[in-house]
Write a structure and sequence with these properties.
Elements: E1 4-8, E2 11-14, E3 19-24, E4 35-46, E5 53-59, E6 62-70, E7 73-77, E8 82-85, E9 90-94, E10 99-104, H1 107-110, E11 114-124, E12 135-139, E13 146-149, E14 152-161, E15 164-165, E16 174-181, E17 185-189, E18 195-200, E19 205-207, E20 210-212, E21 217-220, E22 226-230, E23 234-241, E24 248-250, E25 253-255, H2 258-269
Antiparallel strand pairs: 1-21, 2-3, 3-4, 4-11, 5-10, 6-9, 6-11, 7-8, 7-10, 9-12, 13-14, 14-15, 14-16, 16-23, 17-22, 18-21, 18-23, 19-20, 19-22, 24-25
């Protein structure tokens, strides 16, 4: 019997000049553990003078997690944070009761052709922490646990696994891994969390002998040891953790309370969110989603 409960095909989203593959939320599965949003960005190539321009926009009751394979992104937020993120580092932004941020290619990256390839996820906060004060944390690559086993380079982006713990501060039990396989690599994923999924960034990923098409999110059986392999160079992401309960999502807002989302809509419409210093643009509230 297969240990893959569902195989999800992402929706393609236009983020203004480049495409994203959005696996969560999905019609079949809304969340995996606390993960309620999973975007695979690119790889997108920009000519000189061009780049990513995601204008200021708001979030509530969640945390955003940005992880790059290639390229550079400049994060600015309403707390006054200004931070470039490079491959292997982790940006964790806790929106809590409300935050606004922008994501752009830095000017230094626009003077030549550039590529962006990244994963961005949203993590729903436990109900008791949904209205926490917003914060922003950056963790350089050299602070993130990396190890090798059986032909696999493992990066523990957030959470705990196999006795190792990421320094990234989280609010609930979580696992978030980047697995990079060399020839004939094998990784045993233990049943440490009740909800887990594997996303095939590249082709060549096999779960318990079943090959997973590229750009698919495989929802795994609970309480089962899972063998992930690849005959050649390949890589994938593992996400999961313990559930935080039902959540509602509308645009950039996530909450356990629908009325809170309605309030956030009105606050953004009336310009009541804090502003990002030195930013004059913003993304208007959508009319229809």
């Amino acid at each position: 019997m297969s240990n893959i409960l569902h195989l999800l095909t992402p929706h393609i989203q236009d983020l203004g000049g480049f495409k994203a593959r959005r696996s969560l939320p999905h019609d079949q599965i809304m969340m995996v553990g606390p993960f309620i949003f999973f975007d695979h960005l690119g790889p997108a190539t920009f000519p000189p003078g061009k780049g990513v321009n995601v204008r200021p926009h708001p979030h509530i009751n969640l945390a955003t997690v940005t992880y790059l394979f290639e390229g550079v992104l400049l994060h600015r937020d309403s707390l006054g944070s200004v931070q470039e993120i490079h491959p292997g580092a982790v940006n964790w932004m806790t929106a809590g009761k409300g935050i606004v941020h922008s994501e752009r290619s830095p000017e230094s990256d626009r003077i030549q052709a550039s590529t962006l390839h990244a994963i961005q996820t949203w993590v729903a906060l436990p109900e008791a922490d949904e209205e926490t004060e917003p914060t922003f944390s950056h963790y350089p690559k050299n602070q993130i646990p990396i190890w090798s086993e059986n032909g696999v380079n493992v990066t523990l982006i957030a959470g705990e696994s196999k006795g190792k713990k990421s320094p990234v501060q989280t609010f609930s039990p979580i696992i978030y891994l980047h697995l990079s396989f060399t020839s004939s690599g094998k990784y045993i994923l233990p049943p440490e969390y009740s909800e887990r999924a594997v996303y095939s960034v590249t082709s060549g990923i096999t779960i318990d002998g079943e090959e997973i098409p590229q750009h698919q999110l495989a929802i795994l059986s609970p309480d089962k040891e899972i063998e992930i392999t690849a005959p050649d160079s390949a890589y994938c992401m593992v996400i999961g953790g313990e559930t935080v309960g039902k959540r509602h999502k509308w645009w950039n807002f996530v909450s356990s309370n629908l009325a809170r989302i309605e309030q956030a809509k009105e606050d953004w419409r009336l310009n009541k969110f804090p502003q990002v210093p030195n930013e004059t643009e913003f993304i208007p509230l959508p009319n229809n989603i």
